[in-house]
Amino acid sequence: MKIQILGTGCPNCKKLEVVTETAAQELGLDYELEKVTDINQIMGFGVMMTPALVIDGEVKLAGRVPAVEELKNTLKG
What SS3 class is residue 28? Predict the structure, then answer.
């Protein structure tokens, strides 16, 4: 599973990274985490608000940081 965190490095972007890693590790997922900070790449996903979470190329959420439990449900898909 490829997980991408889209954001320029703001506090919420960093928080989303921590929450995502926590959820993925608690689920025991085999994943690759990539931080995308380039604004042109972020806009290429059609995202206008950061932070955003992309799983296997599909934007799953944008503009907020979910709780770990909510993110676990998103990752289980």
Answer: coil
